[in-house]
């Protein structure tokens, strides 16, 4: 099944999970950073998909519908985590990224760790757009549908994100 396929009525929920769980996991993981948190958010995403599958009307692509749910669940998780912690969201996210090296599920090199640190410096919207465009390789029209933002605004956000990441990487 391709990214652009709509949801066939004869596809089972289990098939949907099998087809999209890995891509959604990595999308979520880039937003929440921690493997365990990403697993929790992915599970919540598929619970929400299961509960709302009958309501999927095919007006959007199944792929973008799933990403929208995963993105919203990630944002909800991050906001709840920030409220539970008595520190600011930037401070908490920075601590999480700094602990990335001790994460047994992170097998990236120093450059990848630096990229994650750079991502941590971005405002939430720029980070979302960068992750979807750079890592998930979504087109602007797909990101627009997921985030409900114009393509022009997304292109500007992506441009600013790239500039900030470049500045961070070259100065650290």
Automatic annotation (TrEMBL):
Record domain RNA polymerase sigma-70 region: where: 16-84
Signal peptide: none
Keywords per UniProt: DNA-binding, Sigma factor, Transcription, Transcription regulation
InterPro entries cross-referenced by the UniProt entry: RNA_pol_sigma-70-like, RNA_pol_sigma-70_dom, RNA_pol_sigma70_ECF_CS, RNA_pol_sigma70_r2, RNA_pol_sigma70_r4_t2, RNA_pol_sigma_r2, RNA_pol_sigma_r3/r4-like, WH-like_DNA-bd_sf
All residue ranges annotated as the RNA polymerase sigma factor 70 region 4 type domain in the record: 114-165
Pfam families tied to this protein: Sigma70_r2, Sigma70_r4_2
PROSITE patterns: SIGMA70_ECF
Superkingdom, taxonomy of origin: Bacteria
Record NCBIfam families: sigma70-ECF
Family: Belongs to the sigma-70 factor family. ECF subfamily.
Protein name: RNA polymerase sigma factor
Biological source species: Leeuwenhoekiella parthenopeia
Lineage, top ranks: Bacteria, Pseudomonadati, Bacteroidota, Flavobacteriia, Flavobacteriales
């Amino acid at each position: 099944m391709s990214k652009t396929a709509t949801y066939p009525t004869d596809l089972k929920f289990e098939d949907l999970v099998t087809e999209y769980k890995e891509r959604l996991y990595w999308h979520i993981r880039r937003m929440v950073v921690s493997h365990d948190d990403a697993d929790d958010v992915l599970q919540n995403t598929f619970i929400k998909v299961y509960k709302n599958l009958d309501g999927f009307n095919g007006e959007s692509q199944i792929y973008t519908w799933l990403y929208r749910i995963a993105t919203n669940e990630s944002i909800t998780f991050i906001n709840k985590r920030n409220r539970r912690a008595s520190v600011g969201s930037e401070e908490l996210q920075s601590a999480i990224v700094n602990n990335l090296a001790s994460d047994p599920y992170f097998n990236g090199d120093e450059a990848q760790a630096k990229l994650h640190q750079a991502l941590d410096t971005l405002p939430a919207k720029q980070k979302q757009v960068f992750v979807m465009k750079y890592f998930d390789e979504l087109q602007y029209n797909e990101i627009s549908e997921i985030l409900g933002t114009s393509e022009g605004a997304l292109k500007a956000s992506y441009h600013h994100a790239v500039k900030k990441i470049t500045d961070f990487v070259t100065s650290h």
